[in-house]
Amino acid sequence: MINMMNFSYKKRSWVVFSYWLFVFIGIPIWWKLTEIYRAKLPLAQMDNWSKGHMCNIQFDIPIVIQVSQEFNDVKGLIKKIRRTITSKQHGNIIKLHIKEKYLKDESYYAVKLRENNEISSVSHYIYHNRTLYIDYNLKITPELPKIISQVLLDIFSVQEKYMKFHLEKFKDQNSSLKLDDIDIKVVKYSSSFDIVFSLINGGEKNVILFWDIEKAINLYFGPLLKQLSMFSKFYVESQVQFCAELTFSPQKSKQNDVFEIPADRFSEFVNSIEWNLATTLSSRKIINFIVYVPHYDTRPLFLKDFNDHLISNNSFLVPQWGSIVIYNQESANVNPYLNTTSLLQIFHIFVSNFLSLLGVPSLPSYIHQEPLPILNTWRLDGLYRQRVIENMAFASTTLGTLSRLVQQISNMAIPDQVQQDVFKTIDHLKKACQNLNDFDSFSALKDASAAISLAEKAFFDPAMVGMLYFPNEHKYGVYLPLFGPLFFPLIVALVHEIKRFFHYWREGVKKKNLTR
Question: What is the Rg, in whole angstroms, of the alpha carbon atoms belonging to the chain?
Answer without folding.
Answer: 36
